[in-house]
Design a protein that fits this description.
About 15% of the residues lie in helices and about 35% in strands. The protein has about 800 residues and is of the alpha+beta class. It has 6 domains: about 30-120, Cadherins (Immunoglobulin-like); about 135-225, Immunoglobulin-like; about 235-330, Cadherins (Immunoglobulin-like); about 340-435, Cadherins (Immunoglobulin-like, Sandwich), CATH 2.60.40; about 445-545, Immunoglobulin-like (Sandwich), CATH 2.60.40.60; about 555-660, Cadherins (Immunoglobulin-like), CATH 2.60.40.60. Helix 7 packs across helix 8 (about 710-720). The termini are far apart.
Length: about 800
């Protein structure tokens, strides 16, 4: 009911207002600015209504509002002034309405009058333009093009009309201008952004109203420039240089490259890698993707590579990249020992090279550089070689003295090379050099001269002595060949006496020597080496033949031969001790072997004659008496003093008479031709039979001994021949030495020619026949066998006890 009443009043009010405006009476209208202080007078109603001052209070004038509306003005009943009763805020009351009218009513009672009061509230510029926020954040990618527009929310001003926002101002900046259209404010990109230059831009946008005084509101537009990957990474240096000693350990950081990327986030996320590099580099260096550290992962050898040039790539997340160069120079470390190379070598070197001869060329190398490759070379002291520096790192190995293979035949030459690094390294090489032989040494005999002593009657082929010559040269240059120097001994070539074994130097007798023929002779033996040309030296070999008792005494007187018997006359008056005759005998041997002694072995009247043991003088032992037989026959044996001794016998006829004429019986004792002939045949036959018998026995014995007891036989033989011992002076005993030996040995030269028969003979000659047997068959025995020499004066001569030729 109340609502409908109000609506009614309002409808009526419109009408009244319409009417009042037309009549300008009855309704009142006041216009005043908002926000007047309380109590401010808006107008005088009493005056306007034409009422007395008192009438208002009398009539209980009051201001009413419609319904619940706040009463903004009141009436001063005393003076009828309409005053502001409450704060009147146009914006609060009317907002953006262009006109703001508050409707109040003045109620008068008695009579009830109702006056409408329209309060036109006028806007005052009491509000500033205001943006919704103090900060506007906008993000713009830096890659945004020029002319790009960005809408900004406009500012609001609660005031209306001129007091509302009239214009905008953008504070000067580099990039943006403002474009204000009716409803929209836009930032227009006037110049491209660069995040890397300015990452954030604060723009101050001011909104201005049209009031007076003018009010403004500002907003800070915070422009965040978003990154675009518009920047490639940039290295801090275009070229990084590092120096590194070779052999640096793995993991050593060589250099750290660094690149920055002005972009941010992924766009500025720089990773490093090598650009195009060889596999070698990849095996030696690594780069840390994130940190840019270049580290060693392999062996660094200055001698292989002295510097590395590596392209390093820095790449940001989205693929922009740039490059830098890393130059790593490697410094040398003395890690290579010098190497000694033998370039050429004369090996072996002849020992006769002159000092200063180049025998080898040596090259020394050190792979290091500078001081580390300066090499000094030397060889050990005690060799006759030196190193002579030649061009560059070549050296000649040169002899410094005379070489002698016979002293030192091999040299181990150690060549040491030391470089000048610190610490220095060194190495050495041993060169083995042999000295080749030159035939520079003649054979040299061990003795100045040689003497050989041999008993005569030696076996042909027997060894006399041996000569030895030494030649220190090598192989054939030191191979000694012995030979006899041609010459003559007693008119015969020397080779008929001796032979020398060319290889061994053993000298053999070629023939049997006869002391009685010559006692000594000299030969020259040459030792020659096999070099080319050969060298040789001579030595004298003196051969001394020593005597063997091989000659039986030879009786010169009485003459053994002929039919005419020498008969000595012995005077009847001869006293005891008178020299009657003398047996003269000689012995071709010498010394003891020629020392003769005389014995009367048989006499007609023993005791009548005596013979001087050594003089051979036959003397009467007593005075001759008449009773003594006129014919005296003596058999005298002449013995030498050899071992065994040899002897000869002879018969001597003595006639005791003072006058040759007194010897008519001479015929009796004279030679009876027939008889003597017969006797001779008998004797010869007997001797032959005996000899054959003897020979036969000897053969039997010999064969037996040879077969079963040969060693003993040899032994026996050796013992049985004491003549093997010969005193040195013995050979010097002078003798006649001109007598020819009755014995001729046939020389045999080869053992192969010793046939079994001959062998026997040779052993026979070797005196392997027991000597006592021989002795037993000595002349005396023969004499016994043949009995009295008296009966067979023709035997007349001598039995020679030595073994006859067979
Ligand atoms: C040289 O060296 C070789 C091998 O090492 C050795 O057999 C020889 O005896 C040495 N010679 C000398 C003269 O040192
Ligand atoms: C022997 O010496 C000669 C030079 O006198 C030399 O040429 C030769 O090689 C030498 N022989 C040996 C086997 O050394
Ligand atoms: C050896 O003797 C012979 C002959 O007398 C002589 O020609 C030669 O020069 C000698 N040789 C030496 C090395 O004495």
């Amino acid at each position: 009911m109340m609502d409908s009443k109000i609506i009614l009043f309002q409808t009526c009010g419109f009408h009244f207002l319409f009417l009042f405006l037309h009549s300008a009476y009855g309704d009142m209208s006041y216009s005043f600015p908002e926000e007047m202080k309380r109590g401010s007078v808006i107008g005088n109603m009493a005056k306007d209504l034409g009422l007395d001052r008192g009438a208002l209070s009398d009539r209980r004038a009051r201001i009413d509002t419609d319904g619940t509306d706040t009463r903004y003005c009141d009436i001063n009943l005393n003076n009828g002034e309409l005053i502001v009763a409450d704060r009147i805020d146009r914006e609060g009351l009317c907002g953006e309405k262009a006109s703001c009218i508050l409707k109040h009513e003045l109620v008068l009672e008695n009579p009830l009058e109702l006056h409408r009061i329209s309060l036109h509230i006028q806007d005052i510029n009491d509000n500033s333009p205001q943006f919704k926020e103090d900060f506007i954040n906008i993000e713009i990618r830096e890659s945004a093009d020029r002319g790009a527009r960005f809408v900004i929310e406009e500012a609001h001003d609660a005031d209306v009309g001129q007091n509302s926002v009239q214009q905008y101002n953008l504070k000067n900046n580099d990039n943006f201008i403002l474009a204000v259209d009716e409803n929209t404010i836009e930032l227009v990109l006037e110049k491209e952004l660069d995040r890397e230059k300015q990452q954030e831009i604060n723009l101050l946008l001011t909104a201005l109203d049209g009031g007076s005084p003018q009010r403004s509101g500002t907003v800070v537009i915070h422009v965040t420039v978003l990154d675009a990957n518009d920047n490639a990474p940039v290295f801090s240096q275009a070229v990084y240089k590092a120096s590194l000693p070779e052999n640096s350990p793995v993991d050593t950081v060589v250099v750290t490259v660094s690149a920055t990327d002005a972009d941010e986030g992924v766009n500025g996320d720089v990773t490093y890698e090598f650009g195009h590099v060889t596999d070698d580099v990849k095996n030696i260096f690594s780069i840390d993707r994130k940190e840019g550290q270049i580290q060693i992962i392999g062996d660094i050898d200055y001698e292989t590579t002295t510097s590395f040039e590596i392209r390093v790539k820095a790449k940001d997340g989205l693929g922009l990249s740039s490059y830098a160069k890393v130059i790593i120079s490697i410094t040398d470390v003395n890690d290579n020992a010098p190497v000694v190379n033998l370039k050429s070598l004369t090996n072996p070197i002849p020992e006769n090279v002159s000092p200063g001869t180049e025998v080898g060329i040596i090259n020394v190398q050190d792979r290091d550089s500078e001081n580390n490759r300066q090499v000094r070379c030397s060889i050990q002291q005690n060799v006759p070689f030196k190193l002579v520096p030649s061009i560059k790192n070549y050296y000649s190995l040169v002899t410094t003295g005379q070489l002698d293979r016979e002293l030192v035949s091999d040299y181990n030459i150690t060549i040491s090379a030391t470089d000048e690094g610190s610490p220095p390294l060194s190495s050495s090489k041993t060169v083995q050099l042999s000295v080749a032989d030159i035939n520079d040494n003649p054979p040299v005999f061990e003795e100045q001269s040689y003497s050989a002593y041999v008993s005569e009657n030696n076996k042909p082929g027997s060894t006399l002595c041996s000569v030895t010559a030494r030649d220190p040269d090598w192989r054939q240059n030191g191979t000694v060949i012995y030979s006899l120097l041609p010459g003559e001994v007693n008119g015969a070539p020397v080779s008929s006496y001796l032979s020398v074994n060319g290889d061994t130097g053993v000298i053999h007798a070629v023939r049997s020597f006869d002391y009685e023929q010559f006692r000594s002779f000299k030969v020259h033996v040459t030792a020659r080496d096999n070099g080319s040309p050969p060298l040789s030296s001579n030595v004298t070999v003196s051969v001394f033949v020593s005597d063997v008792n091989d000659n039986s005494p030879q009786i010169l007187y009485p003459a053994p031969e002929g039919n005419s018997f020498m008969t000595e006359l012995v005077p009847k008056a001869a006293h005891g001790g008178s020299l009657v005759s003398k047996v003269i005998a000689v012995d071709a041997d010498s010394g003891q072997n020629a020392w003769l002694s005389y014995h009367i072995v048989k006499s007609t009247d023993p005791g009548l004659f005596t013979i001087g043991l050594h003089s051979g003088e036959i003397r009467t032992q007593r005075d001759i008496s008449e009773s003594d037989s006129m014919k005296q026959n003596l058999i005298v044996a002449v013995k030498d003093n050899g071992q065994p001794s040899l002897s000869a016998t002879c018969s001597m006829y003595l006639l005791i008479s003072d006058n040759l004429a007194e010897v008519p019986e001479l015929k009796d004792i004279s030679y009876d031709e027939k008889n003597s002939k017969l006797t001779s045949y008998l004797i010869i036959a007997l001797v032959s039979v005996s000899t054959f018998f003897l020979t036969f026995i000897i053969i039997i014995l010999g064969v037996r001994f040879c077969r079963s007891r040969k060693p003993r036989l040899l032994f026996d033989g050796a013992v049985a021949i004491p003549s093997a011992y010969l005193p040195p002076t013995y050979a010097d005993v002078d003798g006649t030495g001109t007598l020819r030996s009755a014995y001729n040995y046939d020389a045999y030269l080869t053992t192969g020619s010793r046939t079994s028969d001959f062998k026997f003979v040779s052993s026979y000659n070797d005196n392997t026949l027991p000597a006592d047997q021989t002795l037993r068959k000595s002349p005396s025995d023969f004499a016994d066998v043949f009995g009295d020499c008296n009966g067979s004066p023709e035997v007349g001569t001598c039995f020679i006890s030595s073994v006859p030729n067979v």
